[in-house]
Structures are given as structure tokens and as C-alpha cells.
Amino acid sequence: MSPEKQMPATPRVAFLASPSEDAQAALAELVQRHGEHPPEEADVLVALGGDGFMLQTLHRHAGLGKPVYGMKLGTVGFLMNHLRLDDLVARIHAAEPAVLHPLEMVAETESGATVGSLAYNEVSLLRQTRQAAHLSIALNGQVRLEELICDGVLVATPAGSTAYNFSAHGPILPLGTQVVALTPIAAFRPRRWRGAVLRADTEVCFRVLDPYKRPVSATADSHEVRDIVQVTIRESHDRSVTLLFDPEHNLDDRMLTEQFASG
């Protein structure tokens, strides 16, 4: 959504806040200034918190198709704007949109259950015990790696590539490149395998080679599924969410800053 073209002059705002004291105080002040609307009736959602709360907001309300403007009140704020209580409407009108497409995860468990979930940052597979996971990796139905011995592996979106993926030494992916990162976590064998950059429409399938002796969990953002035997991941074609960012510190700039950070 283009906020300049489609946002009303006085947008109806739904304010959503994390439970922290600071976020609740900011919520009360903003509601007093701008009023309050339920998310279903709002033109824009304003999320007050950190990146974790932003992800919660996306999972709960992205289906409404409303743009989301975040303000940082948590410890991490890569997906957020700076907190300023003044000039909110002007900032929303001037904001630059970033359209994100989540990953769709379908996990099959030892019990025979099939669990689906969305991930705006990443889908990660992790060993559940002290023993390393043994996984095979297939891309679009073709096995590309017969056995990966590791602590885990993940598939990250461009927006999520600066999070867990980056900590696991995966690449940062610019927005709009239509690719995802496939990154191993503490790979033991093959020792030199560093992962891959894949087209976003690639279907990635992980199979757990020894699920009873070496159990593995799968997590889509914060939704964990334990004791999996297989996980299939693909970019969603029919789901998207629009985040709004102040032009002086948009998401592209933040991703570049991460790549050239010296600290």
C-alpha cells in the first residue's frame, strides 16, 4: 500500500502495545491524542514495542491487509521506527512502505500430525537433545544434500536475514531480491558447506533422518513444533504485509547499515 495515495488525511489508527510499562504509558498518551479504533476498522496499525511484539502483531493481524507502523519500545527494534509521540499522522503519511512476503511452513510430526504456520523472519530446525541432528535437504523435489549433520538449519526471508540468520553467519539479503537464505547452524558435516541463496519460489524440504534417536523441532518465528519428521517451506504467493518506515531510516538503509557495522 502507498501511504501517500491511499491513506486518508486523518487516518483511523489502531494502537497495539506490548505489556511493558513504557509501552502501556505510550499507548495511553497516543490514544488520548488520536482516539482508538479496533484493528478491523482502522486504516493503519501502530505497534508499540520491540521486534518480538512486531512479529506478534503481524501474525495476529496481517490477514486484515492493513499497513503497520511500529515504534520502538523494546530492546530490539530493527522492524521499528524511533519512538516519538508528536507528529504521528505526518510521519505515517511520509512513511515509505516495505512489502514483506512470509514463508509458509508445513511440518509433519512423529505422531502423524501436520502443522502449518507462517514466518516473517525465518523457519529454523533445531536439535532437541545433546545429539546433533541428521537432515537431508531437497529443493523442488530433488535431493541436494543427502546428509547434513548439524545443530540445526534455517530458511530466512530478506527481512529476517539480519536476525538469527546473520548470527549463524548467513548472508544479509536486500529487500526485493526475490531470494531466501538457506543457512546451517553449527554444521559438523559437510564441514565446508556454508548454505545457499535460493530463489524465493524454491520449495525447500527437510527430512529428519533419525527422528527417534535424534529428535528435531521446527520453529516458524516463535511457533515451535516438536518431534518433526519432515518440514516443507515455501514463500507465500498470496500473503503479504506492508510495514511503514520513516524515510530517513527505512528498511533498506538499516540492512545496509548492518552489513557495514564495525561493532
From TrEMBL:
EC code(s) of this entry: 2.7.1.23
Main location: cytoplasm
UniProt keywords, alphabetically: ATP-binding, Cytoplasm, Kinase, NAD, NADP, Nucleotide-binding, Transferase
Molecular-function annotations in GO: ATP binding; metal ion binding; NAD binding; NAD+ kinase activity
Entry cofactors: a divalent metal cation
Family: Belongs to the NAD kinase family.
Designated name of the protein: NAD kinase
Lineage of source species: Bacteria, Pseudomonadati, Pseudomonadota, Gammaproteobacteria, Lysobacterales
